[in-house]
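chain below, 214 aa
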Amino acid sequence: MADKAPEDAYTAEPFLPERGGLPALRKAAADCRGCPLHRDATQTVFGEGDAHARVMLVGEQPGDQEDRQGKPFVGPAGKLLDRALEEAGIDPADAYVTNAVKHFKFTQAEPGKRRIHKAPTLREMTACGPWLAAELAVVEPELIVVLGATAGKALLGSSFRVTQVRGTVMEEEIHGRAERLVPTVHPSSVLRADDREAAYQGLVSDLGAAARLL
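prediction:
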């Protein structure tokens, strides 16, 4: 009987390096096959930013532009997030940004057509959890800003509802560490909102609650 492919185990654990900081993690993550998402994605999109950041921003997964460039939050949602952070009093250069899932999951009607974002499953988020745990252990942020429902479910469990807790300060144990978290919506949801200005001001307000804790 043939050995099972590593992605069938749905865990990134075997791909983590034994030692090293963020550079070692980023290099190892580039070869991750801990779930099937690596097959269709262009590349792993690992977290970026200040290795000693006081605030870590955790999103859902890379989008189309992130997948092509290999960097998190470089598309339209990322640009909007930077603007909202500055308005709220947080310097984007002082933050560490990452995603709960490190590969772009998408659907595509046919080759050459636009790639449509598809939400990762709980199994895929759990498989990718060891990378996020390793990032938290290295960066040791004072505060985690949770961007959207998928990131919230990855960190806080499947019962998480962003609408119920956005803008509030939560204290939870995450991957064995006591963490303070402020949840808010994902910036991409602002871009899709009917009343974009109201949605944007809501995001800035939530980020302002995070800024006051720093």
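The chain has eight helices and eight strands. Strands lie at 48-49, 55-59, 95-99, 106-107, 116-117, 143-147, 170-174, 177-184.
thats it, cya
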